[in-house]
## 1
Amino acid sequence: MLAVQQLEAGYGESVILRNVTLEVKQGEVVCLLGRNGVGKTTLMKSIMGVLKARKGRVTYYGDDLTKRTPGQRAKRGIGYVPQGREIFPQLTVFENLLLGLEASPEKGRVVPESAIAKFPVLPTMYGRRGGDLSGGQQQQLAFARALASQPEVLLLDEPCEGIQPSIVDDIRDVIRSIKSDGKTAILLAEQSLEFVKSVGDYFYILEKGSVAWEGNCESLSDEVIRRYLTV
């Protein structure tokens, strides 16, 4: 479905990713692990086209997206919840959700029920500005905004960062719900090992910008965790 092949990317003269290859299949939650600074967010930005790849390819159903813009990738069916949420603080909750429809083939002013049903608190806040929401509520808004276009691939970059445990549980439930439908692929970058093990099907660990290990949950042993994830 979504494949990254020998990807190299970075900022200025610095190379952050080196020969990264991974695959995300339909209906799977693929988790991206690694210590801080190993390139997880850089990889997410490169897949979405926010950061241009220097080498390698990003393909979607065999279609080469490497030179496509973020908008073009979104319209092809890739949704993105960036680290830090990046909602528009001066716009209302409803206006933020409408922006998610820009990537939909059928633009309109009706946010799909499937997007907001997963976060029932949002319709009660439609008139509030995004910047007035709590961190957890902003994360829910960013998630719903990405779901508004009904993507087939969803990129989630640190969705549990800095939010209260109750919202983390809500996000876990949403990911499991999406997974159970079997239609959407998810690439999840997250620091919480407990969280990713509760939702993930397959795991990649980055070290120094390269894939150092990959495997399923059963093979994610204590030795692997100590070697690549323990600080």
## 2
Amino acid sequence: MLRPSHLSVVDMHAHYVAPDLIHEAERHGTDYGVSIMRDADGRARLAFADGTVLRPFFHELCDLSVRVFGMDAAGIGLQVVSTWTDMAGDQIPPAQGARWSRLQNETLAADAAKSGDRFAAMGTLPLQDVSLALAELDHMARNLGIRSVEIGTNINGRDLDHPDFRPLWKRLCDLDMLVLLHPPFKPVGEGRNGDYFLNNLISFPVDTTIAAARLMFSGILDDLPWLKICLAHAGGFLPYQIGRMDRGFAAHPACSRSLGTAPSRLLDRFFYDTLTHDDAALAFLVTQVGAERVVYGSDYPFEMLDPTGPERVRRLGLGTAQEDAVLGGTIRDLLSAADAPLAEGEG
């Protein structure tokens, strides 16, 4: 999957929706628990049965070829593309939700495969039913060659340390699957985050912080030391408030009930994308967790993409080995390590 390229940078946080998925949803949406609406300008919009209607799809989101010129200019040889989180479909009834996840994964994988070595698909799961999520995870790994998966930082308000999710974390670990934790369509703070784009600016990083903290304090990271989890948006507030969590661990029994070590000792159990939008914050992140735990991500093609691109990393003045790790070496190793085919009956 990860063939050599003269373009060395890997963008591991970017989003894509296949045109074939939109066409299928428009024709047979009831099979998936969705429908396609058209606005006055004829632009397609995804709608769910609960009344949620997403903003219109747009060209940059739905065309891989349009992004290649910018990738070439930035030295990006590989972009790992995941679904638009808003359309993951966690609220869809389970049977339809499973079909919706399968459609997203198969269209992502098909379009990535057509691109040669420029794009790799990151899967999605029907997390409203863990048994269905496990089945889709196996299908992705065995049949689609997908070796990374995007998971929301909460699932319909249910946190990721919920006992129902334990088999999923175990299976992800067994499959050596890279997980990108990404905030969902409805992050924490609903009711107070509707103005000023605060749902994205503040609630997204808060939701990521909650998810990471619960994975630490619940003992899941201790129980499954080989889990490979990347936190979107540079870890939310986690790397910058880890001292507060250590103080809680030392001072309050609730923090040490399931965790046997200070949270700061688990900080480098996660990977973090570079999306700080600030050189000093990114430099601090590298200092906190090590360059080998930081991976380049752009958030293409949404408003909150980093227009500075890989140049922000290069401005930090890291050594060659550290810079190469952030800009591509680490993520290539992570995906390649998981790229060996599964033996029949393995896992």
## 3
Amino acid sequence: MTSRNAAATRQRILEHAQHQFARHGYAAITVKGVADAAGVSPNLITRYFGGKEGLFLEATRVQIPVANSFDGDRATLGARLAASIVRRWFDTPGQDPLLVLQRASGERPQAAEALAAFLDANSLDPLYHYLRDTGLDDADARDRAAAIDAFVLGVSTRRRVLRSELGDPADLEAWLSATIQRLADG
């Protein structure tokens, strides 16, 4: 097997694992099930990822560029964040590593820890700094950032993890935008 094919095979395994973990959680997934879906031997999962736990950890690596959501006037923060959120929710259905972490956080302490660390580093802290840098005092910026973070996580949990309908993207974006903006404005 060439290096190029090995990389493609590894990626195919990872994509199937992300989809299955996002859809069914950690406990219900087997190495054999992922291997079968990817059309490979279970031995390759052990070879590339060290087993189910390694595959899960790799499948839940989350990278979301949020910096561009914080470029601009606070008066349009809700619109920028809502557009970014809705795009992510609709563009990566079933394979979003953040969704995998959310679904697994109830059954895997490592997933809950990883989700909390991710949200602190990529949502709560940057949002707090943005709000503070746009003129809010420290305590107010911290409170508003926490409210926005909790609201978005709650909506995400309700609509994605509990498998409720996301609804129309435009309506969802408008509602998120208005609500996030109210929280940002106090």
## 4
Amino acid sequence: MTILWTSETAAHATGGRATRPFELTGLSIDTRSIGKGELFVALRDVRDGHDFVRDALDKGAAAALVSRIPEGCTEADPLLIVPDVLTALQDLGRAGRARARAKVIAVTGSVGKTSTKEMLRAVLSAQGSVHAAEASFNNQWGVPITLARMPADVDFAVIEIGMNHAGEIAPLTRLARPHVAMITTVAAAHLEAFGSLEGIAHEKASIFEGLEPGGVAVVPEGLGVTPILLAAARAHAAKVLTFGEDKGCDYRMLSARVVGDVTIVKAETMMPAPALTRAGTVPLRPLRRKTLLFKVMSPGRHFALNGLGVLAVTEAVGADPSVAALDMARWQPPAGRGARQRIYLDILDEHQSFDLFDDAFNANPTSLAAALEVLAGAETRDGVGRVRRGRRVAILGDMLELGPDEIALHEAVARLPAMAKVDLVHCVGPRMRALWQALPQEKRGEWYETAPEMVARAQHLVDAGDVVLVKGSKGSKVSLVVDALKKLGQPDAAELFRGKD
């Protein structure tokens, strides 16, 4: 494995003292998943990471980043002792960024950060080596860890940056120093902390403050707060690229057609037109519109728009957007973010099955509306279940951190156009009770205060032939319902029936 840091280079980056020589192949903050050769970072959260250093070293950690010698350890153990662990972690990330040759991309947005990061990983991997954040490593710990884990010789790096409160994004983007910064969208997420969409937009727009000289900003058009984003982009970026459905976008979506589990996108962009002189030299070339066709391996216009932004980023980092468009099919949504799976209830009868959209990781009014549009367009199967008619079923958990209007925002979901095609809605949580009560009686399924209560009813919530969406904020724990629905399936049935649909 690649040696990322030695005791000498890590000590130099952090200003710390190494008790003995070591070599590091990675970093971790979790003893449950730490690998051999990794640096255990003893951060303080609900528990003090110093309490777990001995366990980490016993499990094969090459060293531990600490501010004191922990209980159970001595100077003979491989320790990197620093005044403050979080500051040292940030210093290590800063040093990792400084030595890298990579074109660095930073991504933020109220919806779609992780999916967009993974799209970029997928399309850029065909045009160079890529380093990208794991899972949702997008906070004050995750960003420096991602930078410190970055090999010096990768071609592209994709850094996800999130926020929960004001002033969080700017320090992280200054740490990452991106060549390109992209905002996916701005929506009513974390309203509790910001009070308005405009407040969220200003915070998201601060991602451009860390751009390298000559950097590029990639901005979504068509939002009410787009002027806020564009003003910040023009203040900090040498170039601004826009994407969306409006005329005048640098990357404009003309159509997005859902076919089964795939979204087929037609778009256009401004590209230089070939213009050779008689002498064979290439002068400044006029721009012309070029059509791009690509497919996203998940249904939904929101995924299509994110894909369009990804193509703009590929241009900004000097990759080929036409090749990236062809490679977009390399990406598929991860579990918890819209992935679709068929659950087989009978290993002898493939028709005894239902389709599950697992979107249980995050939720706000915008992302929920997009998910319900996907559900509304999904094809059910009739005549195979107890109910005889396949249904579109939504299982929805609370949307959190929406502020004083949270009850009204939950209730308003009942009036979304997509709800007309949803047959049944089960709800979890005190906030979602407002939606449940606002639904017409024929759409009203079951409501429970907590996800574990609904888990006990899993087999009664769905039927063969149904298409089921599970979505909610992570704190609503509707992922437990996803797990329960998956457990209704027969082991090995998916492999047995693969390719028969």
